[in-house]
Amino acid sequence: MKILVTGNMGYIGPCVIQRLRASHPRAMLIGLDMGYFAHCLTNAEALPECRVDLQYFLDVRQPPSWLFEDVDAVVHLAAISNDPMGNTFEAVTLDINYRASVELAKQAKKSGVKTFVFASSCSMYGFAVDILRDEKSLLDPLTAYARSKVYTENELQQIADKEFKVTSLRFSTACGMSERLRLDLVLNDFVAGAIASRTITILSDGTPWRPLINIKDMARAIDWAIGRDISDGGEFLAVNVGSNTWNYQVKDLAEAVARVIPGVDISINKDAQPDKRSYRVSFDLFSKLAPTYQPEFDLITTIKELRDGLEAMDFRNANFRNSQFMRLKVLIDLRNNGRLTEKLEWLNKPLMTASE
Ligand SMILES: NC(=O)c1ccc[n+]([C@@H]2O[C@H](COP(=O)([O-])OP(=O)(O)OC[C@H]3O[C@@H](n4cnc5c(N)ncnc54)[C@H](O)[C@@H]3O)[C@@H](O)[C@H]2O)c1
Questions:
Q1: Smallest Cα–Cα separation from 95: which of 119, 70, 142, 59?
Q2: Ligand 1 atom at minimum distance from 173 CA
Q3: Distances from the Cα of 231 to the Cα of 109, 151, 224, 237, angstroms
Q4: Predicted structure pTM score
Q5: pLDDT tens-digit map of 153-178
Q6: How far apart are alpha carbons 291 and 285 in whole angstroms?
């Protein structure tokens, strides 16, 4: 079996590769990434990409024609991966997350790939707090990032058939320790603040709802999606991935962190504009389709895992919101230092043409 994982050099990717390496020991694992955050390692004992058989430094916007030769499954993680980046680089976000994702899937199908797993997001529900949203609920994408996921899902649905199984995993907000940790995610940010300055600064009024999931459980869900039978969900399946018990309000997350890490003050921004990105999500379908792949990590275990990981790094940077742990900051620095173009292409790198 040959599995191609795009975007494997980010936050979730190393964990996905680790999982697939363990569950498919004889598979050939191929990584593909631009390497925007390749240098942002966090206490990795070795380069995480040593676990893949082959690593391509390529742009998913320009996939070479030979890319999918003998590939059985594609896990497509590569993306501009949050709202702040999507707001700053809106056209690029739509180009990478939407246009290129759909083209990649079409090319994969044409080349005989059988399985395509897409990393989608529950953020497509937008403002949805009255009742739990399920997969049939109306979507309300409020940002370029969320729109890019909706547009892609819509087109993937047209491409899927019995020879090309597509699973769109609408992930909850990720959390947990990684060899390329991000601190621009709510729970990770709270634990970092608690460790570095004994303060959790909530930027909103604390009321927005967010479903969460540990990245190890995301990796297990991806593994399930690769192997799922078409009879479990159909040729195209969009499914919320998380668990009903992980629907939290932001202030509950902060309080949980303060219970695990003593002596922490929580500051809430009472004057904040209401955060419209607030959603409560039903994970019943995922629980029905994948009973043995349900999330195993709970909130407290994940907070402890982050605490231990940050302490092992001797983490003390109270100004981490302006550091290399923020994906947007890294991209802006690379662009301002003349490493990346406005379109987030590497400068001075010979690009392959599609025929090479
Ligand atoms: N982190 C979350 O909370 C979360 C939640 C739901 C869905 N997702 C989705 O999961 C996926 C992975 O998220 P992450 O947190 O690991 O993000 P990340 O930003 O850490 O990693 C994304 C990776 O994609 C690569 N990439 C970006 N553009 C590329 C291009 N044009 N060509 C090749 N590689 C490119 C980057 O270099 C990076 O390594 C994304 O699709 C994201 O939208 C993430």
A1: 59
A2: 3
A3: 20, 25, 14, 11
A4: 0.97
A5: 999 999 999 999 999 999 999 999 99
A6: 10
